[in-house]
Specification:
heterodimer, A: about 260 residues, B: about 400 residues, Rossmann fold, four-stranded antiparallel β-sheet, EC 4.2.1.20 (chain A), RibuloseP-bd_barrel (chain A), lyase (chain A)
Amino acid sequence: MSQLKEAVLATTAQGDKAFVPYIMAGDGGLENLQPTILKLQELGVTAIEVGIPFTDPVADGPTIQAAGERALAEGTTLRKVIETLSSFAEQITVPLVAMTYLNPILAYGTEKFAIDAKKAGIRGVIIPDMPLEERDIVHPALKNGGIDLVQLVSLTSTPERIERLTKASEGFIYAVTVNGITGARSSFQKDLAEHFKTIQTYTDTPVLAGFGISTPEQVKNFGSYCSGVIVGSKIVDSLANNDWATIETLVKASKTALVK
Amino acid sequence: MTTTVKGRFGRFGGQFVPETLMTALKELDEAYDQYKDDEDFQTELRYYLKNYVGRETPLYFAERLTEHCGGAKVYLKREDLNHTGAHKINNALGQALLAKRMGKKKIVAETGAGQHGVATATACALLDLECIVYMGAEDIKRQALNVFRMELLGTKVVSVDSGSSTLKDAVNEALRHWVTNIEDTHYILGSAMGPHPFPTIVRDFQRVIGDETREQILALENRLPNTVVACVGGGSNSIGMFYPFVEDSDVSLIGVEAAGKGIETGKHAAAIQGGQTGVLHGAFMYLLQDEDGFVQEAHSISAGLDYPGVGPEHCYLHEIGRATYGTVTDEEALEGVKLLCRTEGILPALESAHAVYYASKLAETMSKDEILVVCLSGRGDKDVHTFHEAFGGDLG
C-alpha cells in the first residue's frame, strides 16, 4: 500500500483524524524548511504538504500567493527544494506531498523528478492545474518512481467525474470544499455532508478536505465528514508570524475530532 | 483541418486547469458545439457583425505603400475600421451572444492593451450583461484612456498587482474570479489561447477575417494571395486570418512576433522564436520560461503582444511548417507606424505595425505580379501617447 494512504489509515484507526498542514517551501528562506518540517512532525501531523512556489499560481488565494512571491524572491525553485529535503531526508518520518503547478515538473524532467523527489521523502504529488484528462503527461513517470498522484475533487465535479476521480486518485482524495481558490473562509455550503458521502461511496481511499479550513471548529466539523483535513493559508500565516501556538491548537483539534 | 484530437492541435493545447473549471469547460464545449451550427444563433451573430460592428471590412489596395516597397502588391485587411477599433470585437460579441444563450448573466475578462477589455465592455453594454475586467496595474498606467472607456461602458475594471502586473497576471486573476463565480459567470477570453475550447471558439469567431479576405481577393484579383502576414501575440487576429487559407498550400502564412528590444537581449515577447514548450493558462504551448519552469515576463512596446505564451494552433502550424514565424523589434514597429501614416494616411495600432513593417520588407523581395495581404488588426489611436513618447518632437 502507498505510504501516504497507510499514514492516513493509521491515524484514523486510532480514532483520530488526519491533519495535513501546507507549508510554502522557501518562505522565510530554504533554511527554514528543515526546522519547520521536524517541528510539525513532532506535533503529530499525518503528512506534510510542501508547496513549491510558482510565478503563476492560478489556484491560490492572496495568502499563499504572497507566500509564494516571498519564496520566489528568496530564489526558491523545485530543484533547490528537492536538494534541501534530500539533505535531511533520513530525519523525515512523515510522508511529504509536493503541491506544485505542472510547468516546474515539466522543466525538471518528469522521470528525473520522480526519482529525485522519492529520495527527498516526497511520497505524493498534487498538481492543481492538471486535471485527470491530462495526467498522462506525468503519471507514467510518477508511477515508475513510486510516487502517488493525488486527484482533487471539486464541488462542481459531476457524479460521473467524481467516480472517475476517486478511482484514479492515489494516496488520498483531496476534496476541495469551496468553489474558488485557497484561503480562509468563514462559511461553507450547507450540503457538504452529502457531497462527502457521495465521494466516499466510490472508494475506500481516504478523503481529506481542503481549501478554506482555518479554525479548530472547522477542523472538527470537516473531520466528522471524512478522514481528515488539509490546512493551508492559516498554517502559512502562522509560520510567517512564528505563531506555533495556533498551529498546535489546529493539530490538537484533529486529535480530538471524535470527542464532541 | 488542424485539430487532431478534440482540444488538441498536434501535441499542443489541452485543458490544464483546476478541477473546479472542468465542468464549466465541458458545459461551454457542449454549448458551443450546439450553437456553432445553429442557424438562429449564426443569423443573430451576422446581424450584429454587419449592422453593429460594420462588417465586412474593406480589403484595401495600398497603392502608395506598394509603390514605396517596389515589389508585391500590398493589400490591407482593414480590421482597424471595426467598431471599437480592432478585430477583438468579433470574438467578444460572439462569446457574449454565446454566454447569453447559455443563460450566464455575468462576464469576466482579462485585458492587456485594453482593446479586448473595451470590446468586451461594449458587447456587454449592448447585450445587458454585467462585466468585470482584470487588467495589470502596469497596463492600467500605460492605457489609462481605455480604462476610462471601459468604465464609461459600465464595466468594473480591477487592477492586478500580483506577479509582473501585466497581461499574464490579469489572466491569472480572471481565472481565479471564474473559479470562484463559476455558477453564473462566463469567461470571455480574448485571444486564441487558454484551455480547450477557447482556442477553437476564438479562432472560429475570428475566421471571418480570413473568410472575407479570401472572397475579396478572389473578386479583386481572381486569385489567392501569395503571402498573408499578421502579428501574433496570443494569436487571435492571425489565426482568424490564416485559418481559411490553411488548406491552400500555395498561400504562404507568416506570423510576426514581437522581438521587443531584440531576441538576443532576452527582452522580447516571441514565444515561438525564443521560448520552449510548457504549460500556462490551460494550454501546452511555446512559452517564455527559465530553466526552472518559471514563466518569464514578456517585453514589447505593444501591450497587446506583451504575453509570454502563444496560442496552441500557431504552435502546431509552426511545428508542421504550414506557417512560418518572424519577428519585429519595438524600433522597427515604430518605423512601421510612420511608414503607414506617411504612405497611406492610416495610423496602425502598435501590434499591427509589427505586421506592417515585416510585410513592407518582405514585399521588397517579391515580384510585382505577386500579392501580399497584411492583416491590419487595429487602429493606433490608443497608442498615440506611446508614439509621442517614442518620437518626441523628432518625426524626421
